[in-house]
Amino acid sequence: MARPRTPKAKAEVTGQAAVRRKKFEGRNEPEVNDELGNAPDWITDTEKNKAREAWETLRKEIPWLNSSHRMLVATAANILGRMIAGQEVGVQAMNLFRQCLGQMGATPADASKAGAVGKNGESEDPADEFFQ
């Protein structure tokens, strides 16, 4: 199975767009100018589910999300909110949450595919020293 295509917005945030300019220059993607924004009114915090808090966590930790991702974020926020509230979350819900994160490009594997920058501001690829 082919690797999922890295969204241009994610590539810009992680620096991959600068490294692989030609790959992303000609890419035509839907232009969404609206940010992810605050959680919809129907997402509420309760004793058993801290979905609004989870929404804010996802919004801050995945900066390339925009308004076209709202339904996917709502699904992930619902599951994460249950975890934050200390509720039991089944295997199926955890798997769905993992899939949501993968689709949003928020897993460590996705970050490494996008060429995320390490703590010291440099690439973490051990082969870099041989190809510089």
UniProtKB/TrEMBL annotation:
Superkingdom classification of source: Bacteria
Its lineage reads:
Bacteria, Pseudomonadati, Pseudomonadota, Alphaproteobacteria, Hyphomicrobiales
Q: Where is this region: Disordered?
A: 1-42, 107-132
Q: Which organism is it from?
A: Nitratireductor kimnyeongensis
Bias regions of kind Acidic residues — which residues?
Answer: 123-132
What protein name is recorded for this chain?
A: Terminase small subunit
